[in-house]
Design brief:
Blueprint (H helix, E strand, L loop, with lengths): L6 H11 L22 H25 L7 E4 L3 E3 L9 H8 L7 E4 L5 H4 L7 E5 L2 E2 L12 H14 L4 E7 L2 E7 L2 E4 L2 E5 L6 E3 L3 E5 H6 L3 H16 L11 H12 L6 H15 L7 H11 L13 H21 L6
Parallel strand pairs: 9-11
Antiparallel strand pairs: 1-8, 2-3, 4-5, 4-6, 6-7, 10-11
Bound molecules: zinc ion.
Length: 337
Amino acid sequence: MTSGRPLSRRLVVALAIAAATVACSPTPAPSTLEPLESDEALRLAALTDLDQRVARVAWSLSEANAALCPTVRLSAGWALHSARQYSPALRPHAEARFGLRGDLPGVIAAPSGSPADTAGFRTGDVLLAVAGAPLSAGEATGPAEWEGLEANIRAIDAALAQGAATFTVQRGHDRLDLAVQPRRACGYEVQLDPSDELNARADGRRLFISTALAGFAQSDDELAVILGHELAHHVLRHRPWNDRGGVARRANDGAWRAEGGSGGAEQQADRVGLYLAARAGYDPTVAAPFWRRFGASNWRVRFPQIGHASAGARAAALETVQHEIEARRRAGGELLP
Ligand SMILES: [Zn+2]
């Protein structure tokens, strides 16, 4: 994960690619959560907290499962954001809280144990240059925009792809150089979408989780169940579908059954996803209760959805997978789905 993208910038991304994503979670249902505080600073703080939780779990899943992912990259494991990605209403708070300026990437999360953490990066660090090449600050004003940050992230990823890289960092009034040794991780990004819909989806390169769904997860273990399911679509090379007739979905299901699998692509993503979460050290026993609680809070998912069984049936199926994982652990074998 190289970027956390709160707010408008991510909303733009989400809308732009919504038509090309796997409609992965059940039909979006109205959130049962209280709306975020109207006060902008509190709203930013709540989003930052969610961003950091998502970054932490996404990094763990990505690194632990690199051997299973079809694409890998060398990653610092951090989540980055920029002032410019925030709406003009939230931007002054983001600038004040994180020292952000224009398109310059700021560290919103350096998950514990990640290369960024090991290198000494902290939330609030602003990256000024990589390998001596300045990153672009762009324009400080104007509507929310993310292209400038994206360009900076591409430059950073290119440097990390070569191995160890030194960054010039602004930390408060200090300027320092920090060298990061990136590690192999799954080659896709996880992003938090500002949305009241309980939803997650993947587009083959990126994985999106709504703020409502991330907030519904009460622990990192539950968050790993959700993100593991989405990562499983990537591991299983499922195609995104956006067709009304479900052609791509049937192709996914057909390809899976042709290889001897049972159930559909979504059921398989549930199964493989729980393995991915367990391989990253998360507790697989939370999956079934999570789906039951989700079903109890959202009447829509008590019934089967397109591509999905009902929440109750998913929970029962996940219990079977959980027992399978526990048996393999007892036998001392590798946790391969
Ligand atoms: Zn799915």
